[in-house]
Amino acid sequence: MDDVAPDSSVEPLGSAEVVPLPEVPDGWFEAADLHDTGSLFVRRILKTAGDFLTRVGRLGEEDVACLLRDIDFSASLTVVPLPQSVFVRESLRSGFWLTDIGLSVESVRNLPGVRRSKLFAPMSIVPALRCRSRTVCSAWTPDRLFPAVPPQTARQLTASSSQGGTQYLVFQHQAVREI
Prior knowledge:
Blueprint: H1 26-32, H2 40-56, H3 61-70, E1 78-81, E2 87-91, E3 96-100, H4 105-109, E4 120-122, E5 127-131, H5 142-145, H6 151-160, E6 167-170, E7 176-178
Antiparallel strand pairs: 1-5, 2-3, 3-6, 4-7, 5-6
């Protein structure tokens, strides 16, 4: 049997690669009310949120800190394109929160009667931070948004909108229009 030289590209068992911690400004931890500054997981989540706010939102440190206070870091958080859905909106000083109502634009346009709230939909690809707000609790329900629909339609809306409730932080006002 021929002698085979060990493959130098394979790490021997027991060796671990040291992953550097992402650089995160100290003020972000305080603003977000996160205390585990040594955790790689906490640092990655906070860096994702902070980078989104500074790069996409083009916000200064004070505004970043204000919005970091509003993000619920106990829930999942990720940067995504805003889904092609219908949303209720809560405006902020810079940017706004959108809450997905779980219905398509077509289904909303086909509903009879008057709406009680303004509804919005993206016109193009819009970068968004999918997360949960600590302060924005949209009290929308299909019967509150569309009070004039017949009972049968209201039941269908309630079933269709059961996937709603996801919140997104968005900064591109011009790419989201009222429907």
